[in-house]
Prior knowledge:
- By secondary structure, this protein is an alpha+beta fold.
- It is built from six helices and ten strands.
- The protein has helices at 8-12, 67-79, 113-125, 151-155, 163-173, 179-197; strands at residues 5-6, 18-28, 32-33, 37-38, 41-48, 53-54, 57-60, 90-95, 102-110, 134-139.
- The strands form two sheets. Strands 1, 2, 5, 6, 7, 8, 9 and 10 form an eight-stranded mixed beta sheet that branches. Strands 3-4 form a two-stranded antiparallel ribbon.
- It is globular and about 50 Å long.
- The relative contact order is 0.19.
Amino acid sequence: xxxxxxxxxxxxSLKGYRHACHVMxxxxxxxxxxxxxxxxxxxxxxxxxxxxxxxxxxIVNPGEESLEAGxxxxxxxxxxxxxxxxxxxxxxSRLALSPPDLVTHFYTKKLREEEVREVExxxxxxAADHGLEVMGMVRVPLYCLKKGGGFPSFLSNSxxxxxxxxxLATLRVLGLLSQEELEAAVATxxxxxxxxAH
Length: 198
């Protein structure tokens, strides 16, 4: 059933399926926007070659490497540095809605703020895919400003496949934003999209 969550072990037993692994890299921060609005957390996404926002990662071949080794290889290409992702970082596995015969695996990797800055620098200076498959890393603004600025405005962008729902679910599961904050941001983003459609 497309969209259904399944166990990682079960997904690896499926015959004829491809596997895509992606990771949300994040860190805590004491930084404040304009010296007064707490940022609290840094969450990285990337602008893809097709103009959609997504998470770093890509197609892996579990017949030749573990999911985590494949994801680490993809990260080397996309962010230009070795970032070890282990089984303990696995968040979910799901049968993709589209294309058929694809399983998506989602991971989270918590780093220190300095390490996130290293990832951002490497993504620009040494990633093989920078400017090709990946246009650049983007920080998700997890705060709300007047008139829907910040997170609600960010949510009104175009995301690839399930990246938007992965972001929202993971922010909730990790406690980076409360359920109330998420619901308010989603509602504001929906109103913003509707107002620009008219």
